[in-house]
Amino acid sequence: MSAAPDKMPSMNDAPSLTVLADQAAYAAAVQMAVDAAAAYYGDGTSPLDDDAYDRLVRGIEAYEQTHPGQVLPHSPTGKVAGGAVEGDVPHTVPMLSLDNVFSPDGLARWVAGLERRLGRPVEVWSVEPKLDGLAISARYHHGRLTQLITRGDGSAGEDVSHAIGTIVGLPGRLAEPITVEIRGEVMMTAEQFEAACEKRTAHDGTTFANPRSAAAGTLRAQDRPYVCELTFFGYGALPLPPGGDSELATRLRTLPHSQIMDLVAAWGVQTTAATPVAGIVAATAEEIQARIEQIAAARADLPFGIDGIVVKADLAEDQAAAGFGSRAPRWAIAYKLPATEKITKLIGVEWNVGRTGIIAPRAILEPVEIDGSTVTYATLHNAADIARRGLMLGDSVTVYKAGDIIPRIEAPVVHLRTGDEQPITVPQVCPNCGDGIDTSQERWRCVRGRECRALASIVYAAGRDQLDIETLATSRIQQLLEAGFITDFADLFFLNREQVLTLERMGEASTDKLLAAIETARTRPLSRVFCALGVRGTGRSMSRRIARHFAAMEAVLAADAEAIQAVEGMGSEKAKLMIEELAELRPLIDKLIAAGVNMTEPGATPAAGAAATVDGVDDAAAAAELPLAGMSVVATGAMTGPLAALSRNQVNELIERAGGKASSGVSAKTGLLVAGEKAGSKRTKAEDLGVKIVTPEEFAEMVAAHL
């Protein structure tokens, strides 16, 4: 939590604030901010999320500027940690906070102000992520880690040396036997947070609100019966008197910040250097802003939290000339990003039934703005997930959103409970049809399965990325169901002209057009037909892999669990579920076969090695000659040129026809990124990893023979 102004819905907006109408409102706001900061820097259980706290402090600052005679001595403005915490271990050099900006204009004004103070341009800037954790100082004597100290009030902090040995990235011994102080951020990665929540739930039935508060509480905890792992990223180094190495001290006082970070990494301390948001040096305002945008775009895919970007004058002489304020250095600023996490109320839970009969809960929230959009609903996976998180109606909950991910509830904020919260009622019968519920697995299902939501199941099967039956609207499917002409999507292939003509608003032309579309759907490749079945645990991508692996439905049906696991990405549990699903779907599959629906994948080679054609060539080895052979390809953004009319699924099918593997995420294994308009974070990540990037037009030329 920063003791600074508010985060914003957009990187270009001016920060908003809590408006304080009078002195009483101001006094109440000061007390609320101090209490929130004390809780946050104590055990991480603040009643306010970062955005609300920043908005409140911004309002306090505004009131104090217009009413200087009413400023309260315990106001959080101008103080490290809002003045809410103290420590008993003095810092060798004050451990200050950072001032904030929220937009390119704000950053430009700050840069101009710094350069006016220096009387010269700043030639080199450091741009690095602002990690969302707790600042600590790690003291090493002759290369051995001897003490950990929190930031506290900036002048002195709390000794938390009991945490030594539990923090990844902070070695017990450095690569060199030096005496030095490393400063950095302690936090929990997403994986560490999940593990910590499991341990806490097993211990007392509660969970942590979010990774930041979990890290704060864990760092200070000394008497827990369980140990939670933390992560450290270094962001600076200082000489450590007394007895420090004078040569090292001179280097640390004179080297640019970027070179000091290289030293820190060489000593064995983790920095962000190996991450997609590694710090860089920049020479111009344009380069600074470009890196800010790159880091912001990568934020959603990071395994750890960031809440901004830190911009620093890189050279030691610039830092020395600029100096320090009472709570922050004048040579560094934090460019804050929009909040991805807020606290709001859980006011209800609705239970919906999906097309396969899966019963899924969805949280209804008091509307809250997160990352520029108003969030009213959030994901709740299943009843077991609700129980694990200990959620209750009326709870204050932490809601998280990153990038385009559907908002989810992280955890209840247990310390804000009033006693009025009520248990969440789980359904005893199917919410859709009133029949029984199969609770044998964590994801509950109506005992009628797909029959419970026949309309949804058929609509899905006929969709563009499955059988792609043109003109078959949802209303038409409903008519066919009500007339008794169909009970599942296989029945569509047995429809005759006389039946369809009896439907309301179906003339001869529209009937012929619909029947022609159904006839075309009969020839779709196996990957489309398999996807239309809606097998749980599979989707478009997995359906393509299955179809290309087995080549024919006959081989799929004959496969045992071991054979199915040979499909990339198919684990043992998924394989077992797929066999169960296919047994349930066998009557539907037999009906499709009887209707003459295609059950093979063009160009695929059967897993057993039987001969098959690849784009018309009777030689499996010909697959190696395809333009994308063995290459992992990611398509992102809006396609243009020859690919403009293709859906994302059709682009992925094209990738696989050309011998590649269609993937949804960029990684070090990605061989090619097809970047359309507004490619976003995937393009940024590809650039960071050195992945080859092509336009849709260039890609179309590469695979022209397979379009």
Automatic annotation (TrEMBL):
<dbReference type="GO" id="GO:0046872">
    <property type="term" value="F:metal ion binding"/>
</dbReference>
<keyword id="KW-0862">Zinc</keyword>
<keyword id="KW-0479">Metal-binding</keyword>
<feature type="binding site">
    <location>
        <position position="128"/>
    </location>
    <ligand>
        <name>NAD(+)</name>
    </ligand>
</feature>
<keyword id="KW-0460">Magnesium</keyword>
<dbReference type="InterPro" id="IPR010994">
    <property type="entry name" value="RuvA_2-like"/>
</dbReference>
<dbReference type="GO" id="GO:0003911">
    <property type="term" value="F:DNA ligase (NAD+) activity"/>
</dbReference>
<comment type="function">
    <text>DNA ligase that catalyzes the formation of phosphodiester linkages between 5'-phosphoryl and 3'-hydroxyl groups in double-stranded DNA using NAD as a coenzyme and as the energy source for the reaction. It is essential for DNA replication and repair of damaged DNA.</text>
</comment>
<feature type="binding site">
    <location>
        <begin position="50"/>
        <end position="54"/>
    </location>
    <ligand>
        <name>NAD(+)</name>
    </ligand>
</feature>
<protein>
    <recommendedName>
        <fullName>DNA ligase</fullName>
        <ecNumber>6.5.1.2</ecNumber>
    </recommendedName>
</protein>
<dbReference type="InterPro" id="IPR013840">
    <property type="entry name" value="DNAligase_N"/>
</dbReference>
<keyword id="KW-0227">DNA damage</keyword>
<keyword id="KW-0235">DNA replication</keyword>
<comment type="similarity">
    <text>Belongs to the NAD-dependent DNA ligase family. LigA subfamily.</text>
</comment>
<keyword id="KW-0464">Manganese</keyword>
<dbReference type="Pfam" id="PF12826">
    <property type="entry name" value="HHH_2"/>
</dbReference>
<dbReference type="GO" id="GO:0006260">
    <property type="term" value="P:DNA replication"/>
</dbReference>
<keyword id="KW-0520">NAD</keyword>
<feature type="binding site">
    <location>
        <position position="151"/>
    </location>
    <ligand>
        <name>NAD(+)</name>
    </ligand>
</feature>
<feature type="binding site">
    <location>
        <position position="430"/>
    </location>
    <ligand>
        <name>Zn(2+)</name>
    </ligand>
</feature>
<feature type="active site" description="N6-AMP-lysine intermediate">
    <location>
        <position position="130"/>
    </location>
</feature>
<feature type="binding site">
    <location>
        <position position="336"/>
    </location>
    <ligand>
        <name>NAD(+)</name>
    </ligand>
</feature>
<dbReference type="Pfam" id="PF00533">
    <property type="entry name" value="BRCT"/>
</dbReference>
<dbReference type="GO" id="GO:0006281">
    <property type="term" value="P:DNA repair"/>
</dbReference>
<dbReference type="InterPro" id="IPR001679">
    <property type="entry name" value="DNA_ligase"/>
</dbReference>
<keyword id="KW-0234">DNA repair</keyword>
<dbReference type="Pfam" id="PF03120">
    <property type="entry name" value="OB_DNA_ligase"/>
</dbReference>
<feature type="domain" description="BRCT">
    <location>
        <begin position="623"/>
        <end position="707"/>
    </location>
</feature>
<dbReference type="InterPro" id="IPR041663">
    <property type="entry name" value="DisA/LigA_HHH"/>
</dbReference>
<feature type="binding site">
    <location>
        <position position="433"/>
    </location>
    <ligand>
        <name>Zn(2+)</name>
    </ligand>
</feature>
<dbReference type="InterPro" id="IPR001357">
    <property type="entry name" value="BRCT_dom"/>
</dbReference>
<feature type="binding site">
    <location>
        <position position="452"/>
    </location>
    <ligand>
        <name>Zn(2+)</name>
    </ligand>
</feature>
<feature type="binding site">
    <location>
        <position position="185"/>
    </location>
    <ligand>
        <name>NAD(+)</name>
    </ligand>
</feature>
<dbReference type="InterPro" id="IPR018239">
    <property type="entry name" value="DNA_ligase_AS"/>
</dbReference>
<feature type="binding site">
    <location>
        <position position="312"/>
    </location>
    <ligand>
        <name>NAD(+)</name>
    </ligand>
</feature>
<dbReference type="Pfam" id="PF01653">
    <property type="entry name" value="DNA_ligase_aden"/>
</dbReference>
<feature type="binding site">
    <location>
        <begin position="97"/>
        <end position="98"/>
    </location>
    <ligand>
        <name>NAD(+)</name>
    </ligand>
</feature>
<dbReference type="InterPro" id="IPR013839">
    <property type="entry name" value="DNAligase_adenylation"/>
</dbReference>
<dbReference type="InterPro" id="IPR012340">
    <property type="entry name" value="NA-bd_OB-fold"/>
</dbReference>
<dbReference type="InterPro" id="IPR004150">
    <property type="entry name" value="NAD_DNA_ligase_OB"/>
</dbReference>
<keyword id="KW-0436">Ligase</keyword>
<dbReference type="InterPro" id="IPR036420">
    <property type="entry name" value="BRCT_dom_sf"/>
</dbReference>
